[in-house]
Write a structure and sequence with these properties.
Number of helices: 6
Largest sheet: 11 strands, antiparallel
Radius of gyration: 23 Å
Length: 367
């Protein structure tokens, strides 16, 4: 029996930070210097004199943020918006219990990824090559936004999910079901810790069946993942025309079941578009070329990040004779697919921030 380790869907929202009675708080606002509009979706961090990060936030649709320091002292505010170079403020002194205001006007200086990324650069240290490091820096910011905002609840969403079996023999039938879920949720999709994946691999076989694990943003950002995979830059073709890709595969020393795939980014905006991956080194040498998944990302107008659509495809394995020896060996007879897509998202106040075209089609069918 195939199992998905976790439901591969998340709504990612903005957090306002925490504040204690004696906290030192910075309330700020970022503005685009050219348009004068609010700078939403920017990472803002509070760092001390040693350069250590003490607080983090993401600006909301109004360009506002709240940072809370655990102690008084001298700090700098750093801002990084995906697709732009970073900003660092002058030192800011925070006194005990003080709430300080901070406003910054930031010039949009896009990183011309398309001009500096060279296809085919390959390294097992993602920061080693110049063009690869530039691409990774933008992808890392996007993944960090996904990972950080995923830890805060608050948006209402409606999602359509499905689970179905597809077999190479058309006469066989299996699961084929669709359902809709709605409500306020935190993080329906969370991978197991990266260190556990490093020890056990991405496919676990036990008495209960085969469990296929997917990478979330925290896993992809982890030191464990970076040290067990090698990377290569790619230029999109066909369905990925106009995109830049950072491909990854297990290091040669890696023998456990793993994943290989590509993170695709828009070089103009620096926004992460989607992740596609395949399961490799599947236990018992099972051949399953279509086993893997795809996760599509999207940033809604409020600056929140979400997984818009996803699918995980796991092989259905049975023992069967081989043509040569007649020995019963495991073989792939089909795939179990699990996935879904977001139909509608609203804020806690009920404001609509995203509605899928599929939501209108479903509503029309119900009339």
């Amino acid at each position: 029996m195939n199992r998905v380790a976790a439901l591969a869907f998340s709504i990612f929202i903005l957090g306002a930070g925490e504040r204690s009675i004696h906290a030192q708080v910075v309330r700020g606002h970022l503005t685009d210097s050219l348009s004068g509009s609010a700078l939403s979706g920017a990472f803002v961090t509070l760092v001390d004199d040693n350069g250590t990060e003490r607080a983090r936030a993401i600006t909301d649709a109004a360009g506002q943020f709240v940072l809370t320091a655990s102690s008084a002292g001298s700090y700098r505010i750093r801002s990084k918006r995906i697709g732009s170079r970073p900003y660092v403020s002058e030192p800011l002194a925070l006194r005990v219990g003080e709430t300080a205001s901070f406003n910054a006007v930031i010039g949009p200086i896009p990183v011309a990824l398309v001009e500096i990324v060279v296809a085919g650069e390959r390294q097992c240290n993602v920061a080693a090559g110049a063009s690869m490091a530039a691409l990774w820096e933008e992808i890392k910011e996007a993944l960090a936004a996904v990972a950080w905002t995923a830890r805060a609840p608050g948006y209402w969403y409606q999602v359509r999910e499905f689970e179905r079996d597809t077999f190479s023999q058309t006469l066989r039938h299996g699961l084929d079901t669709t359902w809709t879920t709605a409500g306020f949720f935190e993080v329906p999709f969370r991978s197991v810790p990266a260190e556990q994946l490093e020890r056990e691999g991405f496919v676990l076989v036990d008495e209960d069946g085969w469990t296929y694990r997917e990478p979330d943003a925290d896993v992809l950002l982890s030191d464990a993942f970076l040290r067990t995979h090698c990377f290569e830059t790619r230029i999109g073709k066909g369905d990925t025309e106009g995109l830049l890709g950072l491909a990854f595969q297990p290091a040669r020393s890696r023998k456990l079941p793993d994943i290989a795939g590509t993170l695709w980014i828009d070089p103009r905006s620096g926004e992460l578009r989607h992740l596609e991956f395949k399961y490799v080194r599947i236990p018992q040498n099972v051949s399953a070329p279509n086993a893997g998944g795809r996760v599509e990302f999207m940033r809604v107008p409020t600056g929140a990040w979400m997984v818009r659509k996803w699918i995980i495809r796991m092989p259905i394995v049975e023992a069967g004779p081989t043509p040569t020896y007649g020995t019963a060996l495991p073989r792939t007879v089909g795939y179990r697919e699990r996935g879904g897509d977001a139909l509608e998202i609203k804020t806690a106040a009920g404001a609509l921030v995203y509605r899928s075209p599929a939501a209108d089609s479903i509503q029309a069918l119900r009339r």
